[in-house]
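Help!! Second protein's tokens look totally different from the first
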Amino acid sequence: MTLRSKKLAGLVACLGMASILAIPAVTLAQGSLNVNDLGVGAIQGSIKLGSGDVRQTAAQIINVALGFLGIIAVVIVLIGGFKYMISGGQQEKTTQAKQYIVAGIIGLAIILSAWAITSFVLSRLITATQTQLSVILLT
């Protein structure tokens, strides 16, 4: 490829990118949107959004995620135990199985400590914000 064709290809690529970036600005000719334009009025009665406290919802999501991680850690320990049972006394297979078991136990310890920390922090956060809200509402 000659220098002239490289420059031409670069120019075409730059013009192409510029046109791709400029097309949305030209085509967005409509004014501001309202609720009816997005179809929110059609589904207004069918969507049930939670009316609970956001902090408690976040705590529930964290608990579910940590529960799934706990299940995965237990499965890793079970896989390690299964590999240990079928190793047949071979040194390398038993070593690998022991590594699985240790990794699963360490994972469980990390997950339990994460659960303890998050439950402590969230309980203190909920207590602190409820106290602040009651002080604000009473004054």
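Here's the second one for comparison:
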Amino acid sequence: MPNPRGKKKSTMWFCPVTIDLINNNYKKDGCRSRSQYIERAVEYYTGHVNAERDTSYLPNAILSNLKAIVDMSDLHQNRTLFKLCVELAMIESILVATNNIDSDDIERLRGDCIEVVKRTNGNINFKKIADWQNGKEVHF
């Protein structure tokens, strides 16, 4: 049998079970020969071994799908944050318009709120804030 172009012959030893696996599966994988099947298996396994260093092991379709999912999530979060900011700006405008609040009170309140949010890592609720504003002892 003539050597295929660019190929080198190599002798390898396999267990009978491994030979049976090759014989029973190489056609299922669309390979024309057992050699092609073994070559594909070696390339696949080498990719698996090097996967931590080489992202080409993951098919580009999976990577592009993951990127699309992340992009959609970012877009959704950005839209939600924009809507939240609009609502917050409306509330702030109503509060300033209906209450006599000066700049010094706003800056003092901002500083107090920054401390509360830092201390609670943002885990606060309206009831605790209402109690805090009414001078009650609140454990954030």
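Reply: Different proteins will give different token patterns, so don't panic. The chain is about 65% helix and 0% strand.
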